[in-house]
Prior knowledge:
The structure is a homodimer. Chain A folds into 2 domains: about 1-45, no CATH class; about 105-290, 3-Layer(aba) Sandwich (Rossmann fold), CATH 3.40.50. Chain A is globular, with a radius of gyration of 27 Å. Chain A is built from 7 helices and 8 strands, in the order H-E-E-H-H-E-H-E-H-E-H-E-H-E-E. Chain A is of the alpha/beta class. Residues about 25-40 and about 45-50 of chain A have low confidence and may be disordered. At the A-B interface, helix 1, strand 2, helix 4, helix 6 and strand 8 of A face helix 1, strand 2, helix 4, helix 6 and strand 8 of B.
Amino acid sequence: MTWRKNPLHFLKQFSKLSAATTAGAITLLSIYVYDKRSSKAGLCASWTNVSEEIPYPKIKWNHNWDRRDPKSLVKPSKNGVVEKDENNNIKNDILDVTPTATRNILLIRHGQYNLNGLTDTDRYLTTLGRTQADLTGSRLKELDLPYTKLISSTMTRALETADIIHKHLPDLPREKNDMLREGAPIPPEPPVGHWKPENYQFYTDGQRIEAAFRHYIHRAPADQTEDSFEIIVCHANVIRYFVCRALQFPPDGWLRLSLAHASITWLTVRPSGRVSLKCYGDSGYMEPKKISYS
Amino acid sequence: MTWRKNPLHFLKQFSKLSAATTAGAITLLSIYVYDKRSSKAGLCASWTNVSEEIPYPKIKWNHNWDRRDPKSLVKPSKNGVVEKDENNNIKNDILDVTPTATRNILLIRHGQYNLNGLTDTDRYLTTLGRTQADLTGSRLKELDLPYTKLISSTMTRALETADIIHKHLPDLPREKNDMLREGAPIPPEPPVGHWKPENYQFYTDGQRIEAAFRHYIHRAPADQTEDSFEIIVCHANVIRYFVCRALQFPPDGWLRLSLAHASITWLTVRPSGRVSLKCYGDSGYMEPKKISYS
Lengths: 294, 294
């Protein structure tokens, strides 16, 4: 110990250290308080004059949510900065990967099915479910959009629904995908008492449904010249999760949405990556007594 | 200065102070790091195994969003704790204010209107707008729900739409409210280039539309014995904002939703305060060529 030899010198040194520590503590405290305040800053109902703040954090729209923002597709990419050439024009390599078409994705829930079935095969459409699917096929035909593809989950009730829809649109190419099967996407907030999947279901289904989202929901590629209209026949949980994810709403809020059998939910993804919900759970083309939810 | 008189004693005291400061700094640092980690913790697609975190903070459902949680209505209220009597039963004063009925709120956008009108009076429904309103009135009649009230904004296009709907439901009591008029609820995220209201519009409209939300969207009072079905005829921005707020989705995300003229959007508010969206922008009862958006 040197302080016994020269207590004054040691004290000076110690004092410096202590002052630094104190300054550090004050700095940390300031950062902490600042952070606390900025993370607490919620949304306001108007710019300045609010009687009470809406308890919601300000969350920016992620323009590169599908990792297809043109700037992120060219190398070397400069985070978020549009690269320009010497004449201040957007560089050709960015223009080459910039989408021009809009993707329309029509999500259809399967029709009502036999809830008593223990296996997927036994969970076939009820008579009402077949009627609902037929009405939806008819409505899609009536909408007369330039459909590009009819995609469906591989579960019996979704395949049957897609089969019935396909009768109305017989020329439409079909695609089936296991990733679209029903499951437990993410523990819902608020939690519900009556629906408690096992942890392993969220573990496996959640990852798979997120994979399906990344596969099907994204902006058009640059080489797509015409707007596209895809029909995806799948399941309530999958559709509700897709809608929350696509709109950048909290994904665990999916169970706040309720979805009628065979209803139409329409998402558009613009070339800019902006997403819009045109309708959710549209079943207005069915007689009221034909509408069912579970 | 006492340290010249007794440097050793002073050094001991100083050392204690310094140690305390250092300990304090470490504590602050720990809190800061912990907070950083917890505020950064986003939602996961599944419980544990994610290839990539979904960049969304975990936000709890606010059960007392309408300030009508029974526990918050009795005095003295113990924050969130259900008060029980000596026999471990929920206290009568809480049961007395506990709702039992569900409120159904059917939000109808007005029909297409004359966009060239400079004043509200000149922004009357077009022929198509009148047809849309008529089809919606007819659909509401067909749904045959025990409607309790027909409410509307006081703007010409909303009043005209409500008048046409009322012809289909002539016995329904009517109510008009200025708070439901169209406006700029909150600066949208992501921002849009083509729609730039003046700051004072968000300042005045935002507060008013939030006031309308608090007035019309809430759980049933305890003395409501039957489920209610209210029809509210108003405007696209108001409805989109109401939907985001009611579902506890980010309110500034309202412009991610698109809304067809005279379409039906159906919210239910359960006695527990849980909110569910049954459909959004349903216009399936209209021929496709009758559907319009702006």
